[in-house]
Amino acid sequence: MSTRRKPIVAGNWKMNLDGAKARSLTEAVAARAGEAGSVDLVLCPPALYATTVAAALGLAAGNSPSGVALGGQNAHDKESGAFTGEVAPGMLRDIGSRYCILGHSERRTLFGETDATVNAKVKAVLAAGLTPIVCVGESLEERESGRTEAVVSEQVLGSLAGIPAADLAKLVVAYEPVWAIGTGKVATPQQAQDVHALVRSLLARLSSPTVADTIRIQYGGSVKPDNAAELAACPDIDGALVGGASLKADDFLAIAKAFG
Ligand code: PEP
Predict the structure, then answer these.
(1) H or E element: which one contains 226?
(2) Does residue 246 have its Cβ closer than 6 Å to ligand 1?
(3) 176 is catalytic
(4) Residues 233-243, mean pLDDT to the nearest whole number
(5) How far apart are CA 240 and CA 102, in angstroms?
(6) Quick check: 237 pLDDT over 70?
(7) In angstroms, what is the span from residue 81 Cα to ligand 1's centroid?
């Protein structure tokens, strides 16, 4: 992790918890956020509980007393309209969100999102004044057939096509090897660092080395308290996108502390 970039650790709660548990987990993280040190903390609850989390964080006029930010797990690429069941970026913003995960591998594999879909969403989320957390990552089969570099390059270049350097500077990229998500199989620090360096070089190609040097790249995939420190020690790993371990305040905060 670079001293130039403030680490960012985000919890992706996926489709878990209920309203009461969402509230108590938020309160527990907010109360102890200071333990994490100098790290941006983000909670990404299911859309239905976003207002519960916003209230528990005491979000008002874009301010968070605890410093913990709210994020969406997905958004539509249109501002409003006949899109039953969808959530617009402006709605996330309206309830106090600052971030939105986009192109998570579960969205790509289970809901048919392509790089073009993700690209449209990134533009819409930026236009709404939110920070996209753009996910990329290869499957096990792609890694084992030596295609990691090609797959990740295509995803980064496709998902971020046509985004001006000034906007690229605002976003976060999450490298999440699909084979490591929810499997307990974490990438080795070297495997992760190699892909993070590749992503940074692609970001430099899309903007400039100076801009790319400021962009935060998270690692995601079975991050736990006992493997976070070795990932945090890698020069191009600037935080974590955490699934399972973000559902326990102790684990989430311990991971954040490893980066802080
Ligand atoms: C994720 O879904 O973004 C993720 C990284 O999940 P887990 O930490 O459970 O592997």
Answers:
(1) helix 225-232
(2) no
(3) yes
(4) 98
(5) 15
(6) yes
(7) 31
The residue nearest atom 8 of ligand 1, judged by CA position, is 243
| pLDDT 10s digits, 135-182 | 999 999 999 999 999 999 999 999 999 999 999 999 999 999 999 999
**Continuous segment of H or E residues that includes residue 10:** strand 8-12
Show contacts of 108-113: CB within 8 Å, 24+ apart: 109/178
Question: Which overall architecture, per CATH, does domain 8-259 show?
Answer: Alpha-Beta Barrel (3.20)
The pLDDT of residue 238 = 98
The closest residue, in CA terms, to atom 4 on ligand 1 is: 243
Residue 1 confidence (pLDDT) = 55
The values of phi and psi at residue 153, to 5°, are: -60, -45
The pLDDT value given to residue 3: 58
CA of 249 relative to ligand 1 center, distance in Å: 15
The C-alpha atoms of residue 108 and residue 241 are separated, in whole angstroms, by: 17
Atom of ligand 1 nearest to the CA of 240: 5
Instruction: Look at the chain and count its residues.
Output: 260
Which residue in the block uniquely carries the two structure tokens 């993070």?
196
Given the residues 138, 142, 176, 196, select the one marked as catalytic.
Answer: 176
Q: Of all protein residues, whose CA lies closest to atom 1 belonging to ligand 1?
A: 243
Catalytic site residue 35? no
CA 225/CA 53 separation, integer angstroms: 23
Confirm whether pTM is higher than 0.90: yes
The answer to whether the beta carbons of residues 180 and 231 sit under 8 Å apart is no
| Among 173, 223, 237, 252, residue to substitute to test ligand 1 (most atoms within 8 Å of Cβ) | 223
Return the percentage of the chain with pLDDT > 90, whole number: 96
Q: Using alpha carbons, list the distances in angstroms from residue 248 to 71, 194, 257.
A: 17, 29, 14
